[in-house]
Amino acid sequence: MGDLVIAMDGPSGVGKSSTAKEVARRLNLAHLDTGAMYRAVACEVRRLGADHDDTEAITGIALSSDLRIATDPDRPRVTIAGRDVTDEIREPEISASVSAVARIPEVRRHLIARMREIIAAHNRRIVVEGRDITTVVAPEAQVRLLLTADPEARIRRRAAELAEVDHRVVTDSIMGRDREDSTVSNFTVATDGVVTIDSTDLTLDEVVEAVLDLAGAHG
Description:
Belongs to the cytidylate kinase family. Type 1 subfamily. This protein is α/β, with parallel strands linked by helices and 219 residues long.
């Protein structure tokens, strides 16, 4: 079988992970959540008590910690320094601090290299989701798309996932992540060759079918 890399970018709350996993299942592809890699480093930074402004310490943690991530869409598992952080990476505190990790250039270079290694290890048959996959990590992907949704829909979806969290906290988290992450990657406007799918008024199945149609056009 030939290469089939599906690169999927987009902000929080657009249904990116659910879509990426289901597309991977239907096409029998691996799945890589690149955001989980940054979140895992943020977990280790928190465990070690490093200051969020200490870029040298964070870089050292990122480069020296053994980070492993599963690529089975049905069995997501993330470990760092021997600790399973699969659940911890989704905690609101990690969401609030992950941008401090993601904006450090040396950390980004290190993790991007790891992402490319994972893509290659799966014979370039993989769905990769994140914020700069179509432009930086895998610009040569056969399918490149940007998944978007209006802010209210994004906030509503994320609040439903985190039912115990105050709506205002969810709003601040999503808008804050957008502001901070936009300083290091463009994930709101599609570049040349990238297809935009607006999921605001679409069901998950409809979004998945749209992605499968794009993949089908590439054999």
